Amino acid sequence: DINQIGVLSIILLILCTLTMVRYTFLVFSVWSFTFGIGVAFFLLRNYKVIPNLLLLLELTGTVKEVAELKEVQNEKKGCGVCLKKDCSRHKPETTSQPTFLLESLKVPKPVDDAITEFLEIVLGTHVYSWYWDISRDQRLIDEIRIMIRHCAAVILNRVQKKNIPQFLLKNCLKKFMIHLDCFFTSKQIASPNDDMQTFVFEKKNFYKHFCLQSEAAELQYLRYTMHAILPYLMPSKAADCRGSTYLIEEICSSIILKPLMEKISEPALTLSLYDLMHNAAYLYPMMQFMKRENALNLLQFCLAVEEFNQRSLAMDLSESEKVKLLDEAKQIHLDYFDSKAVDKINFPDDVVKEFKDAILSPNDSMTQLRTASPLFRAFEFASDLLEKYYVPLFHKSDEV
Question: Of 1, 85, 138, 308, whose CB is crowded by the most CB atoms within 10 A?
């Protein structure tokens, strides 16, 4: 019982405090830690989305309890087909769901519009291209569209019933730590010339998933997975037509899931602006993309300013080097700050004015450029624009 555990813990702490009076700092730390745990538990015990990090204490009102309560209520209602409470003939996964579950779910309009657009692109590219040569009847296409949306609605409905924080802590975190430990132990043993992935699979005898054997094996696994779970996602009547069911399996596995898995596991998906600017393998494709977007001046400005800062911040610059750097700063102003420049960037007016005053100052201009902030603020302006807008677009482009 939680109350008994709490009372015993307090009694134990009091006894430890009386016997360890000399170690005031240690006793105070233990009491502070215990007090913090107690306050956090009583304040957050009714919050459903916060995971329980205390293994001995179960939070009340969690998502798991709500889901179990709904299952008990469904069992009391009985089977959705024959109304028997102990029915073992009909599948509850397919009979308890309404035929059009998506209508009962509250989905934001932008999300619904995105799903509709995505389905139209998939059907237009992979179904209409050959179906129009066979028939002009639209009913099959409409049926496929409705079934895919229904499958997505069933998945969303099931996800909402699960305790996501608990799933991440008990399942995903454990697997992540296993992979992380394997990586670090392999890195200590492997030589610099060894390929880490090959070393892990061959030398460490690490479990190799069936999908990693080949691209064909991955597609075969996705098809088998969709064949196994699709009866639980589709209405029972829709599963009677093997032709449309097989077509939906193929669309979901090879057209939706396979490209999704490739994008998730692609290293370039996580590249930041810094990685793109300092890796020659990605810098050229990025420049081609920015040129097509008519925004190459932003990337060129960031590269020019970064090179200028590295040289200007060096110690013990000679007078000739200072003059050369000042001329380079003036050229940056002419190329990107001047109102008549071809590659002008729309920096804030105060940044443009301060940078112009710094390079035209009669005093030591290099000292002002080192200590003043306009060039750094201009760099932040351009880099933020690249990072927030153009880099995500680059990852979705054909250059990646």
Answer: 308
For the purposes of burial, counting CB atoms within 10 Å of the CB of 115, is it exposed (0-12), middle (13-18) or buried (19 or more)?
middle
Q: What is the CA radius of gyration of the chain?
A: 31
Whether 255 and 365 map to the same domain: the answer is no
For residue 25, what are the domain limits?
A: 1-50
* Distance in angstroms (rounded) separating the CA atoms of residues 384 and 273: 9
Looking at the structure, tell me whether residues 243 and 355 fall in a common domain. Answer: no
* pLDDT at residue 78 is higher than 60: no
Pick the last residue of a domain from 200, 233, 265: 265
pLDDT, tens digit, 9 for 90 and up, residues 272-318: 888 888 888 888 989 999 999 999 999 999 999 988 888 877 777 78
Alpha helices (H) along 164-253:
164-167, 173-189, 196-202, 215-233, 242-250
Tally of structural domains, the chain: 3
Residue 319 buriedness (CB in 10 A; 0-12 / 13-18 / 19+): exposed
State both tokens at 64. Answer: 């798991």
Which DSSP letter does residue 159 get?
H
Do both 301 and 261 map to the same domain? Answer: no
DSSP 8-state assignment for residue 315: S
| 143 and 170 both lie in a single domain | yes
103 and 247, same domain (yes or no): yes
DSSP H or E stretch at residue 76: helix 63-77
pLDDT in tens, 375-389: 888 999 999 999 888
Look up residue 46 and give its two tokens.
């009714």
Do 164 and 204 share a structural domain?
A: yes
Residue 125 within any structural domain of the chain: yes
Q: Which residue has the tokens 């709904």?
A: 70
- For 99, the token pair is 């035929």
Instruction: Answer yes or no: do 243 and 314 share one domain.
Output: no
pTM of structure? 0.48
For residue 298, which amino acid is it? Answer: L
Phi, psi of 271 (to 5 degrees): -70, 135
Looking up residue 328, the CATH number of its domain turns out to be 1.10.167.10
Indicate whether 93 belongs to any domain. Answer: no
- Based on the domain organization, do 106 and 162 belong to the same domain? yes
- The secondary structure of the chain in percent helix, strand, coil, rounded to multiples of 5, reads 70, 0, 30
Q: What distance in Å separates the CA atoms of residue 205 and residue 12, rounded to the nearest whole number?
A: 47
Closest CA to 248 of 264, 263, 236, 233: 233
